[in-house]
Design a protein that fits this description.
CATH class of the largest domain: Alpha Beta
CATH superfamily of the largest domain: HUPs
Order of helices and strands: HEHEHEHEHEEHHHEEHHHEEE
Helix content: 40-55%
Largest sheet: 6 strands, mixed
Number of domains: 2
Strand order of the largest sheet: 3-2-1-4-6-5
Strand content: 15-25%
Radius of gyration: 23 Å
Length: 344
């Protein structure tokens, strides 16, 4: 392994976070030493630490900071924006700021709405600046929280993959280089190097599910069950990912063998080939096909038993949410969609 700084540098002691961060990024190939990256920076501990870690571990990278004001904190939001702007100026990197539109009255939660607004802004900056990747500061504790949230919601194997370290989302490459590291390590790094950051008071609000898990559930599990529970939970996505990839590859094979016709509103399969597959693969194939017709649709667990019993019949018609219909007979199984592809 060739490191980019001398190991005599105190920051590159093999126990230091800078050393381990650089080693992980190089081994996994998630960052290029001379790359160009946009960092989503709230001004909080995690995103500020990510900026400094990359700056120290990969001094030849070209960095830019993007800050988004969700409009949810009247008193401190402007303070955080100015902090990130000054941070960018101090280290002579580009700075971009965005502000959320007013939330409309609809059924989506504030968390979902804020996330959608933030990613829309980050994607626009990413496309305009043509960076190698958008870097986000999720860490191992975030991963553990996500796994717990999804388990509580009754997720399946794909949901347990939780946060991916590298993901291409709507033609935007997102990388989370801090994902293997714990929050305590990140805070210690900031303290050691005396790097300033701002605390977001909404992170302590119990009205958000993630906060309740972070502030109540995880501390209880750490105290009563396993002191290393965050790291243990954060391992689960790595464990299930390889198995999911195998199941997905087998599902693709079933789809290729069974496919007769594929259109914008209808996909037809050979019933005999499809029915011979294990139901786990049938479920994956149907979910893939439904999402192809409508990205906002899919097969939910509560439909699985009904689908399984229907596939055992020689003929059936089954209505699913968002105008999706399954129609089967002894020769074909057809997935139909009555809604426009991008209709919400």
């Amino acid at each position: 392994m060739k490191f980019l700084k001398s190991k005599s540098d105190p920051a590159f002691d093999q126990k230091s976070l800078v050393y381990r961060f650089q080693r992980h990024a190089l081994l996994k190939g998630v960052l290029k030493p001379k790359g160009s990256y946009l960092i989503g920076c709230s001004g909080g501990a995690d995103s500020v630490a990510l900026f400094h870690l990359i700056r120290m571990a990969f001094p030849e990278t070209q960095l830019a900071l993007a800050h988004f004001n969700h409009g949810l904190r009247a008193r401190t939001a402007k303070r955080d924006e100015l902090f990130v702007k000054k941070l960018a100026a101090q280290y002579q990197v580009s700075f971009f700021a965005g502000r959320a539109e007013k939330k409309k009255q609809n059924k989506i939660s504030v968390e979902e709405w804020a996330r959608a607004q933030r990613y829309r802004f980050l994607r626009s900056v990413y496309q305009k600046t043509k960076q190698n990747a958008l870097l986000l500061a999720h860490h191992a504790d975030d991963q553990a929280e996500t796994v717990l949230m999804r388990m509580c919601q009754g997720t399946g194997p794909r949901g347990l993959e939780a946060i991916r370290e590298v993901l291409v989302f709507e033609k935007m490459k997102c990388v989370r280089p801090l994902l293997p590291f714990l929050k305590t390590e990140i805070r210690q790094f900031l303290k050691t190097h005396q790097f300033a950051f701002h605390e977001d008071e909404t992170n302590r609000s119990p009205k958000f599910l993630r906060n309740r898990i972070r502030l109540r559930v995880l501390p209880y599990l750490q105290k009563q069950i396993n002191p290393q529970v965050a790291r243990a939970l954060a391992r689960i996505p790595e464990i299930v990912r390889d198995e999911n990839e195998l199941i997905e590859a087998l599902a693709v094979q079933v789809e290729k063998k069974a496919l007769i016709q594929s259109g914008k509103r209808m996909i037809r399969l050979r019933a005999l080939v499809f029915r011979e597959a294990h139901f786990a693969l049938q479920f994956r194939v149907l979910d893939r096909l439904i999402k192809r017709l409508d990205p906002f649709a899919g097969v939910l667990f509560e439909h699985a038993t009904l689908i399984k019993s229907s596939l055992g019949k020689s003929a059936f018609v089954m209505d699913l949410p968002r105008g999706i219909k399954l129609v089967g007979n002894k020769n074909t199984i057809t997935v139909e969609c009555s809604r426009a592809k991008n209709a919400r």
